[in-house]
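forwarding from the other thread:

> can someone predict this with LQZAQKY5?

sure thing
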Amino acid sequence: MGKILSHDITKIVKDEFKGPAFKKGHIIQTQDIEEFLKLGKEHVYVLELEGGEIHEDEAGSRLARAAAGAGVRCSQPKESRVNLFAECAGLLKINLDALDAINDLPDVILSTLPNHSVVKEGDMLAGTKVIPLVIKEEILAQAERIINKAGNILQVVPFLEKKVGLIVTGSEVYKGRITDTFGPVLSEKMASYGATVIELAYAPDDAQVIAEKINHAIEKGADIILVSGGMSVDPDDVTPLGIRNSGAEIIKYGAPALPGAMFLMAYKGDVAVLGIPACGMYFRTTVLDLVLPRLLAGDRISRRDIVKLAHGGLCRACSPCHYPNCTFGIGDSWN
Ligand SMILES: Nc1nc2c(c(=O)[nH]1)N[C@H]1C(S)=C(S)[C@@H](COP(=O)(O)OP(=O)(O)OC[C@H]3O[C@@H](n4cnc5c(N)ncnc54)[C@H](O)[C@@H]3O)O[C@H]1N2
Ligand code: MOO
């Protein structure tokens, strides 16, 4: 590290502030000599940077600026820590390989929220910090090379205005024997993400009718179709068959998330068709809360995405529910 010059604080008088010890390019470790005197400190230290060295604050700022992609803004440095904030609401996307590579470098850290977190405008997403007081330019250049190759480390993808079709199954609901609870629960959830429900249809426990309702919603322009109930093992649980009969390709039936085990993910062309088990009505947070934000941010969900839900896919069933400030969905799941 560059030279550190020690000065007897009692000898520092106002005109000496302009003296050679404090010339431009030197860094005084305290701004407030008066405060130092009050505390009974006897020395003030002045850092003289050598070539190829960067002060922690400048280094922290450079690292944060490089890491920030679209929808992310940086704070001013404070003791080299620079925070990154969401400029808009949406889904946080992190390049995890690049994040690992940055944190594998000496003397710098970058710490983030979990990948695929749903964020609001102004939310803190990450913090970067430089560990020593000065850092070698070469380390920072290496960090910038890693980030340039990756494009950025983190970005916020705003939610798209998706059109949603809801198909509520169950003969007891269809025949009016019980009042529909699923429809209102799912409609409210869609509204909270800014998605528009363009169709709310009811189907009895009949796979062919369910298939027809799915195709009707697609014809009406739905981007996402949620088919509720009938996802379990009873003979009249025919929603998975209905989804298959619609011509959709089943990506995975059964998700390693609890609640959400009986979830089904399918696609008919670009239209996502989701089978939502009854837990989606009884629990505030389920597998749907993990999958839906990604769909609304424009991601196509793969079989591997569902498989990777397992680690961190067990809800702690807290009362009250603290999601997303908990471990549900934060394991390797969405890497
Ligand atoms: N023997 C087994 N039973 C269950 C299993 C299992 O593996 N073996 N899985 C359990 C899990 S996990 C879940 S989740 C649920 C999935 O239930 P379904 O999606 O099949 O839901 P239904 O059987 O259609 O309904 C359950 C319950 O909820 C009422 N319901 C359904 N839709 C509505 C609605 N729109 N409005 C109001 N109420 C509704 C329905 O009448 C039933 O009472 O299965 C577990 N069981
Ligand atoms: O395991 Mo069920 O699909 O969650 O409640």
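DSSP finds eleven helices and 18 strands in the chain. thats all i got for now
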